Amino acid sequence: MQLIRARFRLRHPGFSLDTDLELPGRGVSALFGHSGSGKTSLLRCIAGLERAAEGFLEVNGELWQDSSSGHFLPTHKRPLGYVFQEASLFEHLSVRRNLEYGQRRIPARERRVQLEQAVELLGIGHLLERMPGGLSGGERQRVGIARALLTSPRLLLMDEPLAALDLKRKGEILPYLERLHDELDIPVLYVSHSPDEVARLADHLVLLDDGKVLASGSLAQTLARLDLPTAHEDEAGVVIEGRVLGFDTRYQLLTLALPGSSLSVRVAHSPVEAGRGLRFRVLARDVSLSLEKQRDSSILNLLPARVVEESPAANAAHVLVRLDVDGAPMLARITRFSRDQLGLYPGQTLWAQIKSVALLA
Ligand SMILES: Nc1ncnc2c1ncn2[C@@H]1O[C@H](COP(=O)(O)OP(=O)(O)OP(=O)(O)O)[C@@H](O)[C@H]1O
Questions:
Q1: Pick from 7, 90, 309, 339: CA 20 to 30 A from residue 150's CA?
Q2: CA distance 180 to 187
Q3: Which key words tag this protein in UniProt (predicted)?
Q4: Domain over 3-224 is classified CATH 3.40.50.720
Q5: Global confidence as pTM
């Protein structure tokens, strides 16, 4: 069974962590929550760094901890990689030697990731003979991630791996993280403050608040839940996956297939060929609703939608509406005035006008 079960109780003065999670044993699970909500504490429990933590941890069928029977694998025996904000590389060793150090911790027959593969995945072939002192923050982080992979982990823990980088470097490194996600079969627990990173990388989302799990579910379903604080942020929105149908060079329009309709996005170049999957993000504030299909509208995307439920928004003049668009959940933030004009009710079918779609690639 591909599953990570993580049940922990940990007390610090003034803070207690109490989690009972079942996470998918593959793909990226993002841990999201305010500062102090317990994200790092949970990763530390999973890594076995909190000896005082009571709990149970099973990773894809392997038992790492069970306090009820006194079973506790110490950190160095847990096959995991841990990537922090800043990579702590051995400064006196070249990049190649740093990577080999990671690899040597594992007997040859147990290695699941080869040096060439990690170097290629992180795009660091040209850095191998360099010393860490001369690397940029983004390059260091890529080397740190490659070194973690070379220990052939059964689980990769990443604690805000991009937080120390500026926006440009973040943009450079994200495609490599996406490749890890697509090409390696190692489950990742990814702590982040950034909705954008989560939208791009995560499959599963865990929301933590004051040491407790507020929600744990698929990214698409969880982002669309009106009862969670994420739906009430200014940047609230959903992530949808579609398959590329085609790219029109004259109009620079990329068309993506949804289960029963399609969406068009204006982009200069198609990032992938037809048939491949792509993620895109639709913010609640970019979706408006109408009863009629407005054919004369300059808005490109008009999709049939069904109202599932509504909730007051943070701003009293707005309401949040959860929609079902061909089985894909979507959020719309509209004014209370529009809501009354539409006579909105659950089950109503209407048209969602999508003013802007952000491609996550
Ligand atoms: N060793 C410790 N002793 C006492 N309190 C601690 C200890 N470690 C963590 N805490 C407290 O536990 C709470 C959760 O901390 P944690 O670092 O897990 O939060 P976080 O969600 O990762 O925060 P951030 O996003 O700021 O990194 C905080 O209030 C912190 O002060």
A1: 7
A2: 10
A3: ATP-binding, Cell inner membrane, Cell membrane, Membrane, Molybdenum, Nucleotide-binding, Translocase, Transport
A4: no
A5: 0.90
